[in-house]
Each structure stands twice: as structure tokens, then as C-alpha cells.
Design brief:
Rossmann fold; two-stranded antiparallel sheet; about 45% helix
Length: about 220
């Protein structure tokens, strides 16, 4: 059986291959926050590749079974976690719901879409974890509904210290299919980036704001 470490490397390889993750340390992207970043991630692209989305779906199932046992419900975080979450729920034969970033302004003003009842156990599916803020809003909404949130599984995390602390504070276990360190290792070994870029990429991950400021000065 493939180990999770091997699978994490494979997922990272897939993300790089289809440019779901792009690395440009010398020509950084500008995030919505205005900060410069050497990485841009859009994991929704995986849905366009049947082989890759199937591999990711199955890896989600393996990680859930290994770490959380079978929950009552699978919940996707809007919008990136909806499609892959539905695929995971289908594979596991479980009900699926999704959690909006905020309650609707009309109709029933739902934040949670689908049927879930107090006391049910839930595993939350996310595509990307940055600081963890938006992801944990979904966890809070489910807990307020009376659900037992077993934890969250995401495709990718930047591994920021802030996100680690946020999940710890929220007492929410999080597992990811792959992560920043694995991605950088795969990117160098598969020659998506030059090994001379590693230091810059590590500096960004350690302090994105400082990295962005220093780049702006150049």
C-alpha cells in the first residue's frame, strides 16, 4: 500500500503538472490582500483531470478512514471544497452538505446547505488552507448547529504558523493530502524550479509580509 508520504508527493506532483500550483519566486503574484507571493494555488483545476481528481478523491477517503473513522456526514467548504467534497461523500456512501462563507441574504438565510442534525459527526473538506480563518468559520457554523466536527482534511496547506495556531486554538484536527515542504521538494526534483530558489521560498513561508516588502523594494 502507498504510504501517505508517497501519496503526498504524488499529489504535489499532480498539482505542479497541471499548474494548479504555480511557483514564480522571481516574478511573484499579487494576492487579493495586496501582498506579493511566489506561489499561486487553484486546486479547482484538479476537477478537469479525471485521473487526478480520482486519485485525490481516493486519497481523501484513505486519510479520513485512517484518521477519523467514518463520519455521519461529509461537509465541503464553499467554494473550493464543494465539488471534491461531494465526490468523497459519494465514494464513502455518505450524506453531503456544504458551508457557505456567510449566510445567504435572502430566502432561508442558510449558511449550511443540505440536511444535518444535532449530534451528527462531520468531517470537513477544504481545497486549500492559508491562515485557516475561512476554513474555521465553517467549523464554527457546524458546531453551532450541534454537530461533532471530527476534523478537517484539505488538499494543500502553506503550513503557516498562524494557521497551525488557529486550528490548535479551535481544537480542530487538520490533515492535508500534501503540503508546502513536499511541494517544494517535488518542484526541485522535477525541475519546475531551480534549487537556488529554495531559500527565497522558505523565507516567504516563514514571513510572507516581510518577503513581500523586501520584494517591493527591489
Amino acid at each position: 500500500m502507498t504510504s501517505f508520504d508517497d501519496a503526498a508527493y504524488k499529489v504535489a506532483e499532480f498539482l505542479l503538472q497541471i499548474k494548479a500550483v504555480k511557483l514564480q519566486p522571481e516574478q511573484p503574484f499579487t494576492w487579493a490582500s495586496g501582498l506579493k507571493s511566489p506561489i499561486y494555488c487553484d486546486n479547482r483545476k484538479t476537477l478537469s483531470y479525471p485521473k487526478i481528481r480520482t486519485y485525490i478523491r481516493q486519497h481523501f477517503v484513505d486519510v479520513i478512514n485512517e484518521n477519523f473513522a467514518k463520519p455521519d456526514v461529509i461537509a465541503g467548504v464553499a467554494t473550493g471544497g464543494i465539488a471534491i467534497g461531494a465526490l468523497v461523500a459519494q465514494e464513502m456512501g455518505l450524506p453531503f452538505i456544504y458551508v457557505r462563507s456567510e449566510a445567504k441574504k435572502h430566502g432561508l438565510t442558510n449558511m449550511i446547505e443540505g440536511e444535518v442534525t444535532k449530534g451528527q459527526s462531520v468531517v470537513v473538506i477544504e481545497d486549500l488552507i492559508s491562515t485557516g480563518g475561512s476554513s474555521l468559520k465553517a467549523v464554527d457554523a457546524l458546531r453551532e448547529k450541534g454537530c461533532e466536527v471530527k476534523g478537517m482534511v484539505a488538499i494543500f496547506t502553506y503550513g503557516f504558523d498562524e494557521s497551525v495556531q488557529n486550528f490548535k486554538k479551535a481544537k480542530c484536527r487538520v490533515e492535508t493530502l500534501t503540503n508546502y515542504n513536499t511541494l517544494i521538494t517535488a518542484a526541485v526534483e522535477k525541475e519546475y524550479i531551480d534549487k537556488n530558489n529554495i531559500k527565497s521560498l522558505e523565507e516567504w513561508r516563514a514571513n510572507p509580509a516581510k518577503w513581500s516588502e523586501s520584494f517591493a523594494v527591489k
